[in-house]
Amino acid sequence: LDGAGVEDMHRRKTGALIRAACVLGAILTGASDPTVNAVDDFARDLGLAFQIVDDVLDETGTPERLGKTPGKDRAGRKMTYVALEGVDRARARARGRVDAAVTALAGLASAADLEALARYVVERDR
Questions:
Q1: Cα–Cα distance between 11 and 14 in angstroms, integer?
Q2: Is the dihedral of CA 75, 79, 83, 87 positive or negative?
Q3: In whole angstroms, what is the distance from residue 126 CA to residue 122 CA?
């Protein structure tokens, strides 16, 4: 896979579940269409960031912190952002996706909790 293929694969994994949860939550609370669209944009970028961070943690984490054996992606020759770009560039890409996610929320009232969630995604160590 190339970068576009890895992105597509990642968007279909946990990222899709995060997106569904966020969008359904917005719909169920009766949010307006523009708000639902903003939440969708937020969640799409957040989901991708989450998967990229998973790639990084698989490469850099410890069994104690992760609760699982790290290095499985490399050992299984899985195509990940770390395999494509290295750890530092993958981390930077995840931060960029979180910045985009937060930007999608601009203008929405009470988005502080969602912003905090997004920032946690790239700061987590498990």
A1: 7
A2: negative
A3: 10
Rounded CA-CA distance 76/16 in Å is 23
Give 88-101 pLDDT, tens digit per residue: 999 999 999 999 99
Report field, pTM of the whole predicted structure over 0.70: yes
Q: What is the pLDDT of residue 62?
A: 87
Split the chain (126 residues) into runs of 10 and give each run's mean pLDDT: 87 92 96 97 97 95 88 89 96 98 92 94 93
Kindly give, in sequence order, each residue whose CB lies less than 8 Å from that of residue 108, ignoring residues fewer than 6 positions away: 35, 38
Q: Could you tell me if residue 124 is left (phi over 0), alpha (psi between -120 and 50 degrees) or otherwise beta? A: beta
Among 54, 88, 86, residue whose Cα is nearest residue 72: 54
CA of residue 31 relative to chain centroid, distance: 23
Amino acid sitting at position 28: L
Backbone angles phi, psi at 125, to 5 degrees: -125, 20
Helix (H) / strand (E) element for 48: namely helix 33-60
